[in-house]
Amino acid sequence: MIIKKSSFNPNERFFMNVHYFSPGPASLPEAVRKQIKEELLDTFGIGVSVMEISHRSKQYEQLNEETHALARKVFQVPNTHSVLFSCCGAQQHFSIIPQHLSKPGEEIAYTDTGIWAHLACEEVFAMPRKINLVYDGRNCDYVSLGNPSKWDIPKNSKYVHLTVNNTVYGTEYAKIPTFGDIPIVLDMTSSLAGRTDIPWESTALVYASAQKNFGIAGVSVVIIRNDLLEKSREITKANYLGKALSYHAIFDTKSALNTPPVFPIFAMNRMLKWIDHSGGTPTMEKWSLEKAKLIYSEIDAGLYIGRTDKDCRSRHNFVFKLPKEEQDNHFIAEAAKHNLLEIKGYRSVGGIRASMYNGVSVESASVFAEFMRDYRKKFG
Questions:
Q1: Which residues of the chain carry a pLDDT beneath 70?
Q2: Against a cut of 0.90, is the pTM above it?
Q3: Does 166 belong to an annotated binding site?
């Protein structure tokens, strides 16, 4: 065989001595880490590592084809949309996306709901477009996502850009909003493979870096509606966008226009298999909501101060603080004694941030919630 069969047992649960709540790159399931370790030096049974295999070899071509199929299955992508892999991160896509979906002078709509959404806005405001900022979360210090039904979106807008989950501030749309005939573009870096309710009929494009929910840093996924992919062939010419950054060129070459990020794609393959064998995105969503319930129950029990409005709380990034800054630092230090790591809040926000993507088990969330409970009783 060219690619070794996965040995994942979806019923196996792992208890780790260390519980790691990094906002990204995020934890991988222990089963995935073990499999990558076992296969690293001889990935394909020919004495060669995936780190050194040619991207033109039959071994890599099969891995690439399999990973595309897994991505389509796990992300629940309909036949109306195409899937491609890119070495660009989300910030590069901030710049590339408007050049695929709009021409100079055309209208597009954006929302500013956090740091990464703000950076996306900065990119387009530097372009020769008519930009409509339909929601500005800076006015409320990003504690809310507003009311999408009241946004004033020009009818001729080519798309509305939404950041589905805001990792720094801990906000997320409980339901992804749609706007009639105006398509949406979704930054789902921290939510793809974690929720099942993508409104595909209204979605022009989804993009997501892998290192949160379905892999490691170094590769991102772009899911674009087929008709818009075809239209982009002419639109990118009007924007003088080079071939190397064109989604259609990457798609035409099966995500191997040039040497792709082979190892991150391999890691994504193994992570997608684990998700698939565990029950797919529906199971990931179920577990995410269970983890969120555990943590928010403790936040709402007293002592802890949640940062965001309750109707837009993230299911992955739990952001809160204690009454005093010195208590935040004490909480972090006490957590470290219990091997609960990487929970310091983002530098501009402070407080506590515990991130729990697909690779973090419900057991780890339960351990953290129990620590919060014990800490409140002891120091509250």
A1: 1-16
A2: yes
A3: no
